[in-house]
Amino acid sequence: MAEEVSIIKRRTVDNHILAIGGGKGGTGKSLLTASIGICLANRGNEVLLIDADLGTANLHTFLGLEPPRIGLSDFLTKKKSGLDRVIVKTGISNLKLISGAQDIIGIANLPYGQKVKILANIKKLDYRYILIDLGPGTSFNILDFFLISHCGILITSPEPTSIENTYRFTRSLLFRYLRKMISQKVVRSLIDKGVMQRGGHKFYSVFDLLEAIEKIEPGLGDTIASYLSSLDIKLIVNQARTTRDRAIGQKMAMAAKKYFGIPIDFLGNIGYDSNVRKGLLQKKPLMAYFPHCKAFKEITEISQKILPRYQLGLDFSTELKVF
Amino acid sequence: MERLTERNYYKLLGISPKASFEEVRSAYDQAMSIYSTDSIATYSLLTPKEREGILSRLVDAYKTLTNSHLRREYNHSLIEKGELSPQEIGFPSLEGSNVVEGKLREVSVESLIQREEKAENENQPSDANLHLFDDETSVTGRRIKMVRTAKEISLDEIYRKTNIPKKTLEDIEEEHFEELPALVYLKGFLRTYAKILNVNQSQMVDGYVKRYFEWKNTSQR
Fold first, then answer.
1. CATH architecture assignment, domain B136-220
2. Least CB-CB distance to A255: which of B3, B34, B48?
3. Which range is most confident: A201-215, A230-244, B85-99?
4. CB distance A252–B44 less than 8 Å?
5. Domain boundaries, chain B
6. pLDDT digit string (tens) for A115-157?
7. Relative to the CA of B151, which of A120, A174, A197, A247 has its CA 20 to 30 Å away?
8. CATH number, domain at A80?
9. Where in A1-67 does DSSP place strands (E)?
């Protein structure tokens, strides 16, 4: 009996959390969050979208909704006691939404305690897929949302500005991850130094950092390297126009893997589609024009590559006990 | 975790130690398109110094792995360092041997060299005598073809890369002199062809042209 309970418990937290981010604004993060969510929901999965673009939330617009009356802010101001109480329907079956914070000045600068509260509560939500739409930038808030996810998806457009921000985001993410993971004071100060020097050319590459750590704490550098290699980070190139644009994603993935030591998995390209822009300008809900767009096919294909880990990581020992 | 610039040439290019010349070339082309200074894909990822380091290492890798002599020496150095086993470059030299673990490396290097020497003696198109023609007089259509096939380069590939018609390439190799284009074109084609084969260009051009004139002189007499 005890065994059975633990299985059920395990199941309820078997959600797959995906964070969608990537540094630069305007690369299509919200649009892709909404459309990937729709694709996953269409295939019969329970999907929850969370608009964590605090301060400038607009995920609801893509779904053709008026700004929902309840959202993250109600949870933060304790008007609603649980995160599950601020979920709204979207009119699309299997797809629910937690709207971004509205009308609270300074909400983008989430105090640490509140952030931890949201993060802990997201993990408890019982949905097959939870997609978190992140705002632009590399603030700790954004990085931390990314880090609680099971899988982080970076969106970039094929322009140098966006690519630069993607790398900056990845670098910040890794330093943040290491800062959270490592307790040794000496090592921490090394990491902080690396972050501080990021502006100039003197920043630590991940290799430099690991090498420096290895000198202080033999063996630790290798351990960290193996942790880094287990991170699940994916990359999508959006608004690709030319063949050259379409070649960039794979190259970025290869270079980042060699340079950062993390396997970045290139999910695919989404072509620039004027119909998407037209639809956006007419404030039409995504579903009204999306299925007729070329981009829809590409997004559908990409969403098919997003599988929760546990689909592959079958735990046979527990499964057998059920029967 | 190794730095890019510290990886051996095969790992750097992401290819197997058995990779053909063609595979080395295409891996090199791809890596250059990722790391070259005008590549958008690595924009801002690397400092100018890091980029310079990677690029010069890539060039070294290419030069070494497309020259059979240098490549063999490089393979030996990797084997000695224990980074590569003879089996990985296609020498099943230790199968069935009873050498003890500790002596394995030493023995394998020697047997490897022996194997290659044997291959040379049997006068098969082995690597060593292909890398350069002995001198101009040794340049014949048949020799060129031997060099090409030993380097596993197909006529199709040369055509794709150079736009030299396949028919012309075949005529060069088969020495159908009467079919060949005007000398000025022929020289250009031979030079490009030599570049692809990574052999001494003027040697191949001059040697072949000499042969061409020999034919011309005899046929006009």
1. Orthogonal Bundle (1.10)
2. B34
3. A230-244
4. no
5. 4-121, 136-220
6. 888 888 998 899 999 999 988 887 888 888 888 888 899 999 9
7. A247
8. 3.40.50.300
9. 16-21, 47-52
